[in-house]
Amino acid sequence: MIETTLKGKAHVYGNHINTDAIIPGKYTKTLEFQTFADHVLEDLDPEFKTKVQKGDILVAGDNFGCGSSREQAALALKVAGVSAVVARYFARIFFRNAVNIGLPVLEIEDFDIATGDELEIDLKSGTLKNRTRNTQYRAAKMPQTMIDILKEGGLANYLKKYGDYRLR
Q1: How many domains does the structure of the chain reveal?
Q2: Is 83 within 8 Å of 56 (Cβ atoms)?
Q3: By the number of CB atoms within 10 A of the CB, which of 55, 140, 158, 159 ranks highest?
Q4: What's 2's DSSP letter?
Q5: What are φ and ψ of residue 52, in 5° steps?
Q6: For 2-18, what is each residue's pLDDT tens digit?
Q7: Beta strands 84-87 and 57-59: pairing type?
Q8: How far is CA 45 from the centre of its chain?
């Protein structure tokens, strides 16, 4: 289970970050999830794995997670300690893969966030507070079922707890 209130430091990147940039394909042929964390974002920011702390929040621009449909991209971020990803919009398959593995994703059209800003996310209300800049933003509304899946830590845990009857 995850908390519905998340707090962490922002790591800000740009637009069109594809799944190959999140986790290069050559590292995806393993079930050793720590391998994903060891190589997360290495081509985009080789120092990311040493800078990220458990609970930090990745912030990006347009079309985050475009490219292939590999679920290892969302998993790499989660295993590395990222508690949520904020972007203007996500590639749909990345968005769903993230929810399925219990990584919160928030779509916010316009925001002013810099690397190092202290952020707080309330998943229930869909709000993000930038404590450093004293600003607040509202994310696109997420269906309650998706919030419930995130609260359970992903789709597998959700289905173990509730079965599939709530999805109908």
Answers
A1: 1
A2: yes
A3: 158
A4: -
A5: -70, 135
A6: 678 999 999 999 999 99
A7: parallel
A8: 17
CATH number, position 68: 3.20.19.10
Lateral strand order in the sheet of 84-87: 105-107, 84-87, 57-59, 5-12, 118-122, 127-130, 135-138
Number of alpha carbons in the 13 Å side-chain half-sphere of residue 82: 29
Q: Let me know: does 91 contact 107? Beta carbons within 8 Å.
A: no
66 — phi, psi (to 5°)? -70, 170
User: Tokens 């933003």 correspond to what residue?
Assistant: 137
What band does 167 get if pLDDT is binned at 50, 70 and 90? low
16: nearest Cα among 60, 59, 72 = 60
Burial of 144 (0-12, 13-18, 19+ CB in 10 A): exposed
Domain that holds residue 139: 5-167
